[in-house]
Inverse folding.
């Protein structure tokens, strides 16, 4: 069963002879033209579908699936970038195995050797980057320590130590000693002693001594 590749095509003008670059990556040179890749850092706009000469219409597949000439064996699932070796050897599919490679496609039909035609699924503006571990480690360590330690120690210790000692000691010591001793001692000692000593001696002695002596002496 034959596999049909289709997708989104855009028509440009060939800025140079592209007659030997069918099913290779090309670079957008201006708003209306495409040319060969001039360096490994240039972004490939898509895969050339025909073989135009300079000034002719160049049909470029920018999305979907396409055939692609590759520079070596590529199994299914291989990530692909545009190859650049030099001006005469550019635009073939190359394995994207370096950090920050412009990965432009993924293999969906394997190729066995250089210059074989593979089937690829085009990917838009994708960079092959190595995964990093920093986002998973940093947020879990720093914020968890401060809320669990600081609020649990300060309010519980301050509320358990300071209010429990001061009101209980002041209420149990100061009111029990001063009011209980002063009314009982002053009231029990002063009225009883003054009433028992002074009134008992003066009326009895004056009444027994003075009337008995005066009539007898006068008579």
């Amino acid at each position: 069963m034959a596999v049909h590749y289709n997708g989104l095509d855009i028509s440009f003008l060939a800025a140079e002879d592209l007659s030997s670059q069918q099913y290779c990556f090309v670079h957008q040179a201006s708003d209306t033209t495409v040319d060969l890749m001039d360096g490994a850092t240039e972004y490939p706009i898509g895969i050339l579908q025909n073989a135009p000469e300079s000034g002719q219409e160049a049909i470029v597949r920018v999305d979907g699936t396409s055939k692609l000439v590759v520079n070596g064996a590529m199994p299914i699932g291989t990530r692909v970038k545009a190859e650049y070796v030099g001006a005469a050897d550019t635009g073939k599919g190359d394995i994207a195995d370096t950090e920050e490679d412009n990965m432009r496609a993924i293999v969906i039909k394997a190729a066995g050797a250089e210059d074989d035609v593979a089937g690829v699924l085009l990917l838009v503006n994708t960079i092959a980057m190595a995964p990093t571990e920093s986002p998973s480690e940093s947020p879990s360590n720093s914020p968890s320590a401060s809320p669990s330690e600081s609020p649990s120690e300060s309010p519980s210790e301050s509320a358990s130590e300071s209010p429990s000692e001061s009101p209980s000691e002041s209420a149990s010591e100061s009111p029990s000693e001063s009011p209980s001793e002063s009314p009982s001692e002053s009231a029990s000692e002063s009225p009883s002693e003054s009433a028992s000593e002074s009134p008992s001696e003066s009326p009895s002695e004056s009444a027994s001594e003075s009337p008995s002596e005066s009539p007898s002496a006068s008579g």
